[in-house]
Design a protein that fits this description.
Layout: E1 9-15, H1 22-38, E2 43-46, H2 73-85, E3 88-98, E4 101-109, E5 115-120, E6 145-147, E7 152-155, H3 164-171, E8 177-182, E9 185-186, H4 191-213, E10 216-221, E11 223-226, E12 233-236, E13 240-242, E14 248-251, E15 258-264, H5 266-275
Helix pairs in contact: 1-2
Amino acid sequence: MPFSAGTAFQIGLVQMTCSEDPSENLQKAVARIRDAAAQGAQVVCLQELFRSQYFCRKEDAALFDLAEPIPGDSTDVIGRVARECGVVVVASLFERRAAGLYHNTAAVLDADGSLLGIYRKMHIPDDPLYYEKFYFTPGDLGFRHFDTKFGRIAVLVCWDQWYPEAARLASLSGASVLFYPTAIGWHPHEKAEFGEAQRDAWITIQRSHAIANGIYVAAVNRTGFEGTPDDGLEFWGSSFVSDPFGRVLAEASVEKEEILVTTIEPRHQEDVRRNWPFFRDRRIDAYAPILNRWNQ
């Protein structure tokens, strides 16, 4: 039987601002999923922690009240719109696994509304205005793939973006596209000096994952300013899709709410990997030291 690389499908990235009202944000996300589906998207990815503003700017135990079980109310609502529109949805949520045990989790809802599974964020940052270690337990499910109605996908979350090991392991599952729901922005006092370089590094590292692994990469970030002028974050938007050789196929602006719809072509992925056979030439017999924290 002749080789088949799989059928092309359309993905949609939803870049939006968030208010202080979780219910309002959920309904806004539902409307944006419908809009993306109307534009032809078959797999729709929402930004990281879309139900709220980015609460990790401070350490406040009362904010654990934002967490919810999975499955739960949000996956029920998203599942219904997924089924109505016939689309797959990647929804990033603050998961309450048990009392005192919380994760930053991406739920994948298939086109029939069913919960295909979840990915729990593995790498948890702890930086000024990004106090995620206060809230999130590192993921314990490994790097997973999801066989959706339209194709095999993989999902990582935000800080995972900076780790080539994570992208490699997610790509080795045979996924056509790697999604990164994200919440990243500028500190008010750093933007003038470091802002351009920070945003460029964020784009560059993800394009490099696409090239090294011959995989489509789709990063979806929030936009807008959250917090006070002195201790808030200006989220830089810039959601984008890179093809398996690092070419940016679509990119959103820094400050606007937008929906990007782009085609994923498994045949193109196959062609890139045949001509740049990085997987063939990997020296898996020589990589054991990478499991060490340091090699000196």
